[in-house]
């Protein structure tokens, strides 16, 4: 993937977005049922520790709720159609790893795990969003011409002295 294909040009953020999208996609697909850490680890190839941390973050973001009956299980805290990539983005930004902390990555499954279709679909959805965001950014940037700098700089700097002298003389000649 090229740099411009990453949302905001950040590959680590892009990987977190893909991973969170994949995990939330699993919860959306099985809603309103619960998913356990074991099931998530089995289906995604990610470590149980990483998934527990991710689910805790999604719980803090009010997207998941932990099961009061079964430890290590969660379910969606809202209707499946209410979960958006904006929610995923907010979670990814809130859960940025500290320096030296391992990043939950969409591209580093556990050894021997084959990626499933849902992981591919999550990556594709994030890639489509990145392309749309980049197109939107370019569209908005295209509306701002550097001519604005020329206009603002001519207002803020006084005209050269010789030019002001000529301008006053030509104005007095015009009055006569």
Protein model, in words:
The chain has about 180 residues and is mostly helical. About 60% of the residues lie in helices and about 5% in strands. It contains 7 helices and 3 strands; from the N terminus they run αβααββαααα. It has helices at about 10-30, 35-45, 50-60, 85-95, 115-140, 145-155, 160-175; strands spanning about 35, 65, 75. Strands 1-3-2 form a 3-stranded antiparallel sheet. It starts with 10 loop residues before the first helix and ends with a helix. Mean pLDDT is about 75; it is low at about 100-105 and about 170-175.
Proportion of residues in helical segments: 55-70%
| CA-based shape | elongated
Number of DSSP-assigned strands: 3
What count of helical segments does DSSP give? 7
Q: Tell me what portion of residues adopts beta-strand conformation.
A: 5-15%
Spans of at least 5 consecutive residues whose pLDDT stays below 50 are 98-103, 169-176
Spatial strand arrangement across the major sheet = 1-3-2
Distance between the termini: 71 Å
Q: Sketch the major β-sheet.
A: 3 strands, antiparallel
Question: Averaged pLDDT, please?
Answer: 76
The run of helices and strands is: HEHHEEHHHH
* Helix-and-strand structural type: mainly alpha
Oligomer status: single chain
Any idea what the radius of gyration is? Answer: 27 Å
